[in-house]
Amino acid sequence: MSAVQVATTFETVRTPDPASRPVKIHAAKVKVTYGQKEALHGVSIDIPEKAVTAFIGPSGCGKSTFLRCINRMNDTIAGARVEGTIKLDERDIYDPDLDVVELRARVGMVFQKPNPFPKSIFDNVAYGPRIHGLARSKADLEEIVVTSLQKASLFNEVKDRLNEPGTGLSGGQQQRLCIARAIAVSPEVILMDEPCSALDPIATAKVEELIDELRANFTIVIVTHSMQQAARVSQRTAFFHLGHLIEEGPTDHLFTNPLEQRTQDYITGRFG
Amino acid sequence: MEHTVSAYDDDLKAIARLVTEIGGLAERAVGDSVAALTRLDLALAQRVIAGDKELDRLQHEIEEKAILVIARRQPMANDLREIVGAMRIANDIERVGDLAKNIAKRVVAINGVFPHKQLITGVEHLCEIALQQLKRVLDAYASQDDQAAGSVRQRDDEIDALYTSLFRELLTYMMEDPRNLTFCIHLLFCAKNIERIGDHATNIAESVHYMVTGRSYEEERPKADASIASTIAGS
Question: Ranges for the ABC transporter domain (chain A) (predicted)?
């Protein structure tokens, strides 16, 4: 079945926003191949600035693969090949002259399982600013760490134990620590790959609340298996299936009145 | 296509079945109430009044089941629209039941007053159309037929026009002979109730349209109720 789908030309169903937002990331005909297997068959999408875009779809649909293209994480996978164009603020991120390290500072990432470094809470957040030389003095660095922890809604819970190991925090706190670490280098985009799937409902709610606050300053792209989460936190939603972007549109629209049958079948729980 | 969780399908089917059931009961209540009016059949009127409890109960049941499905399954897309639609439609039908009950109560109230058969004929005709509308819109719901729902909505102006002409007719009788007043006023309320039943049928048509297409009718519904204007003209 998938072979037939690869062969046919494919049109993504798109619904524009009622009021258009500036585009932060522009992707055109992005294909990803792992060895012989094409995982993504030409995805084109514009991701709006300072808004949350959710990627949904069943396992193996290509949503995480596509997410990892946005900060060139796929470069680290042996045998992975990316074709097509991805532009961040009009600049091609696959341009050979582009500094990948600098790109990943601009495009931060938060993973499914919280992965704090085996260091203190302070050093977890200070790590990025240090290696990127963002702080000129110790006071500077302290300020970055405190504001990052505040922005991640974690500061009040950890302010008395900044020197304790980050791994000693609860799962939800660890994830917010990872978000603090991601925003410490002042990125423009934050990619989140199922950031709440290892968290309990209260920790999830806190992270969701945080995402909602962060979108005032950051462009956020989130991959989630929870449709309800996508509906709650995002302004736009993109549905992936079998390596194709099937439909993308305003979240409110996509979850109440999707235009594509496959989108409807998936979000209503009718998939085989 | 069926849901992966088959109990979800059962929940939705159960709600749809209850909506059909309450719809059938309301249809019968309306028909019976007007039959009781034309024959001044007190026993039938009492049965309509007593039967309204069952309509209220069903409406509650639909609402509770719908709330449970929302809480349990967080419905999306067409499922969500189906549940919201069922709740709205059950509400409209419950109101239809109340209106039928009100007609039945008036049958009891006008008992003993000399009826003008020719006046009742007009109300009867109005009721026939309203009942047709109700039946068609419930069929449209059962078959999820947007076109059928649309034609119900288009036809509401016919009821409005009939109501307006009935209103004028009753006004004439009342002016002719004050002894007609009580009877005519009761009839006028009955007619108004039926006209409102037509409005509820239109609401249901709009809910069906929303359920099927996910959109609401943009343009205003055609209106032909000129009775307000004629009241002013007549005064």
Answer: 25-267
Name the closest residue on chain B to residue A227, using Cα atoms.
B76
Which residues does chain B have within 8 Å of residue A272's beta carbon, measured at their own beta carbons? 4
In a domain, A143, yes or no: yes
**Paired strand residues for A256:** none
What is the CATH classification number for the domain harbouring A252? 3.40.50.300
A58 is in which domain, residue-wise? Answer: 24-267
Contact in structure between A260 and A239 (CB atoms under 8 Å): yes
User: Which residue did the predictor score with more confidence, A6 or A196?
Assistant: A196
Number of domain units in chain A: 1
Amino acid at A185: V
A86 forms beta bridges with A27
Question: How far apart are the CA of A263 and the nearest CA of chain B, in angstroms?
Answer: 9
Q: Do A72 and A87 contact (CB within 8 A), yes or no?
A: no
Q: How far apart are CA A230 and CA A54, in angstroms?
A: 6
A16 is a domain residue: no
* Cα-only R_g, chain B: 19
pTM for this entry: 0.82
Please report which confidence band the pLDDT of residue B224 belongs to, taking 50, 70 and 90 as the band edges: low
Structure tokens at B36: 């009781």
Tokens of B34: 């007007």
Classify residue B74 as left (phi > 0), alpha (psi -120 to 50) or beta: left
In a domain, residue A118? The reply is yes
Tell me the residues of B at the A interface, defined by beta carbons under 8 Å apart. 1-5, 8, 73-81, 213-215
Number of other CB atoms surrounding residue A212 within 10 Å: 14
A201 part of contact set with chain B, CB < 8 Å: no
A133 inside 8 A of chain B by CB: no
Quick check: A241 and A39 in contact, CB under 8 A? no
Burial pattern B31-46, b for ≥16 Cβ within 10 A else e, equals bbbbbbbeebbeebbe
CB pairs below 8 Å between A and B: how many?
A: 42
Residues B92 and B84: their CA atoms lie apart, in Å, by 13
Q: What is the C-alpha to C-alpha distance for residues B193 and B102, in angstroms, rounded to an integer?
A: 8
Q: Which residues of chain A are within 8 Å of residue B81 when distances are taken between CB atoms?
A: 256-257
**A30: phi then psi, degrees, rounded to nearest 5:** -80, 120
Q: Is the pLDDT of residue B225 over 70?
A: no
Q: Is 70 exceeded by the pLDDT of residue B223?
A: no
d(CA A116, CA A49): 28
Backbone phi, psi, residue A135, to 5°: -110, 135
Of A268, A271, A272, the CB nearest to B77: A268
Is the ipTM reported for this complex over the cut 0.90? no
- Residues A270, B2: C-beta atoms closer than 8 Å: yes
Is residue A128 one of the residues assigned to a domain?
yes
